[in-house]
Amino acid sequence: MNAITTHVLDTSRGRPASGVVVRLEVEGTARSWRQIAKGATDTDGRASNLLPHSYALAGGTYRLTFETGPYFAAQGTETFYREVVIVFTVRNPEEHYHVPLLLSPFGYATYRGS
After folding, report:
1. 22, 33, 71, 74: which is deepest, by most CB within 10 A?
2. pLDDT, position 2
3. Tens digits of pLDDT across the chain (114 residues)
């Protein structure tokens, strides 16, 4: 199992958001960010293989960036948010970190899932 996963649900349509591009980055020194992975959500809205197997998860600050503008543009839907950025802290690298995104054209919510 990958230690960082996400799931995007389009609450305006009542279904998973497939094809949303997601970037995973880790914060380095001087608040610089280094990209670890980039992928897209599958037909179930999940990006479960985002963290490369070669990457050893360590404690620190991570950032998920969801490219929501292109997702809504592909549906012909106007949106307020071009992207959604979620910054979170990994305190125990032995744990699984699931970060869902509930998305609509004019709002979003997130939480630490299981």
Report:
1. 71
2. 59
3. 458 999 999 999 999 999 999 999 999 988 899 999 999 999 999 998 888 888 999 999 999 999 999 999 999 999 999 999 999 999 999 999 999 999 999 999 999 998
Question: What whole-number distance in Å separates Cα of residue 58 and Cα of residue 110?
Answer: 22
The strand order across the sheet containing 33-40 reads: 33-40, 21-27, 60-67, 84-90
Asked if 63 and 33 touch (Cβ cutoff 8 Å), the reply is yes
Q: Which two tokens stand for residue 83?
A: 């992207």
Complete domains list, the chain, with CATH: 4-110 (2.60.40.180)
Q: Give 73's Cβ-side CA count (13 Å radius).
A: 8
Residue 112 sits at the vertex; the CA angle it makes with 88 and 57, to the nearest 5 degrees, is 50
Say how far apart CA 39 and CA 20 lie, in whole Å: 8
d(CA 105, CA 8): 13
